[in-house]
Amino acid sequence: MLGSEVMAYYRRGGERDRLTVGQGRWEFLRTWDVLSRTLPDAPASVLDVGGATGVYADPLARAGYRVLVVDPVPEHAVASATHPGVRAVVGDARALPATGHSADAVLLLGPLYHLLERADRVTAWREAARVVRAGGVVVGATINRFASLFDGFVKGHLTDPRFRPIVERALTDGVHRNDDGPEAWFTTAYFHHPDEPVGEATEAGLTVQRRVCVEGPLGMAGPRLTEILADPDLTDLLMEMTRSVEEEPSLLGAGSHVLTIATR
Prior knowledge:
Rossmann fold, two-stranded antiparallel ribbon, 38% helix
């Protein structure tokens, strides 16, 4: 289901704690904020596809949602199932182990950037459309085409001559292929141009409602972002201001992630 290098990345704990500090923490807070304003009210049923260790499934269950995690990494499914109220199974986004119209919402927060072929990504969107009830919502997360360029400077990876070809290919065709780089670099993935997910979801039979810039440019603010997130008042201010421009088209490519929100 996943390439061997991708499976190895996650099995050795890749990104296990990524969403707990700095840029990753901001990504989590923003994604949760969008979900809280997008999902139907609890106790709606949510299919969390590619939900990893349950980073979103856990708070969703605590909020009263009925959550099923589907993830291709067996260790992830086991970890997700330890959260109270969360069920988890091993599965593929392109062939979901769920009956048609059985979920009130489907989250594709993990799979779309590990499917390198467009046909596979459309299949994942189509499976979400099959599973979600009429009027239900599908939320897909994608990594921006320009993320490795930004990240390469912020984190200093571009000083390594092996990283530049990875960035250049991603900028050309979206494929971020990390065959022999250090563990600090993200594994093989597909980086979408911000306009691509709309076409994929539409082809799958969904109606796109909106696109949301997740972190925005301040997601790359490094130590300053950490300082802001350590101050509850500044965090609230950053959230309020980012929310006010989250659908601004010119900002969709100016951060690491975009959420595409669609309905069936």
